[in-house]
Recover the amino acids of this structure.
């Protein structure tokens, strides 16, 4: 009997190995469908890789980017980590400077940064996952989940697209929160709004008006619908399935529970301390690394979290009147690049952190930059975009030429 059990286990192991080895794929309308012996299907969006994208071209691109970011670090004060991809492949990554200037603790690619408003895309994804599961609708009113919410006529879609007109909680909390030594939570923000009814900026759905309050409300809705804390939902439903082991949400004891975390600084390299607003999640509060954000970027070309149809709406503009050739979807800004492609991106700035992620679906490229020294060095990202996506009609307008020349000297 022991022999038979051993043979049965060996047979199961062999079948499992065969199931892993004999995966095959077929191209269909830019999607790769992978099938296992058990019939499970995984869909991944693909783009054709040009013959010019060779190991040699990747090496040259990596060398140029290394020169540019070293120049940024030495001459313009860039302090942070960076990762760049093209055709789904990492072509460059690097770490420059210190996680803590006082301790002279150097940054690594494993260092986590507060993502600031880049956190909003994880909040939007949480809502999209619940919508796809039929647990909510974008047209639902806030009162369906938060009955005592005092502002009427606001839907989940308006929160996602910054069309609620709600006042900024980071401002009215300064006036209404009695003790700034006590951390404020999402529930506390809701209570302040219910009790004091701060004046709104606009009537609902009037126009785009960027709202941190709206995304903190979305996190509260996720908690009501999923019946678990927002931090737990994001960890279980997004970070863990994507193997984002270096990602987490803010908590007072996070330094004990996590690995290396970059300290936020002022532009003069003085350490920023956390305050009572850090405990509000949804609009900010996610910490991650450039390598984990690469996993996030890659997952958005698959159906691991939501279907392509659901995700498409997140990258679809919602502005009725175009402003400066940009738009906004669900947690993502949308803008044309110098070469004519359309990218989705978001930046963040909060308590000594400055962050940026840009994705170009046309060539499956990404630019991910995390910094803990908001000294204006990320203002030169337009030069990096110009280098990665040079204008084709008039090379004289390409903004990176001077920068690249300076970096080579």
């Amino acid at each position: 009997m022991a022999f038979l059990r051993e043979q049965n286990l060996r047979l199961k192991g062999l079948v499992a190995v065969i199931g892993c080895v004999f995966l095959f794929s077929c191209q269909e309308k830019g999607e790769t469908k992978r099938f296992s012996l058990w019939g499970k299907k995984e869909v991944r969006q693909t783009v054709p890789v040009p013959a010019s994208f060779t190991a040699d071209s990747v090496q040259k691109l990596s060398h140029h980017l290394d020169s540019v970011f070293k120049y940024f670090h030495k001459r313009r004060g860039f302090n942070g980590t960076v990762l760049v991809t093209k055709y789904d492949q990492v072509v460059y990554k690097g770490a420059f400077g210190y996680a803590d200037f006082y301790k002279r603790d150097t940054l690594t690619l494993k260092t986590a940064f507060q993502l600031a408003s880049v956190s909003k895309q994880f909040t939007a994804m949480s809502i999209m996952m619940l919508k796809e599961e039929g647990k909510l609708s974008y047209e639902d009113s806030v009162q369906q989940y938060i009955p005592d919410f005092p502002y009427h006529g606001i839907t989940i879609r308006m929160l996602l697209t910054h069309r609620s007109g709600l006042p900024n909680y980071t401002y009215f909390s300064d006036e209404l929160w009695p003790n700034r030594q006590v951390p404020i939570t999402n529930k506390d923000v809701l209570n302040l709004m219910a009790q004091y009814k701060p004046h709104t900026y606009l009537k609902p759905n009037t126009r785009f008006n960027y709202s941190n309050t709206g995304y903190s409300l979305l996190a509260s809705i996720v908690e009501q619908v999923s019946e678990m804390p927002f931090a737990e939902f994001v960890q279980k439903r997004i970070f863990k399935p994507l193997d984002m082991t270096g990602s987490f949400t803010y908590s007072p004891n996070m330094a004990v529970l996590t690995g290396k975390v970059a300290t936020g600084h002022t532009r003069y390299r003085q350490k920023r301390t956390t305050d009572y607003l850090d405990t509000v999640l949804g609009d900010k509060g996610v910490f991650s690394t450039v390598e984990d954000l690469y996993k996030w970027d890659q997952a958005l070309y698959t159906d691991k979290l939501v279907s392509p149809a659901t995700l498409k709406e997140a990258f679809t503009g919602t502005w009725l009147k175009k402003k400066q050739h940009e738009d906004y979807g669900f947690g993502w800004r949308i803008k044309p690049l110098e070469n004519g492609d359309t990218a989705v991106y978001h930046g963040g700035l909060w308590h000594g952190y400055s962050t940026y992620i840009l994705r170009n679906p046309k060539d499956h490229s990404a630019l991910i930059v995390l910094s803990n020294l908001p000294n204006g060095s990320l203002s030169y990202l337009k030069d990096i975009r110009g280098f990665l996506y040079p204008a084709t009609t008039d090379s004289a307008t390409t903004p990176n030429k001077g920068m690249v020349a300076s970096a080579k000297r």
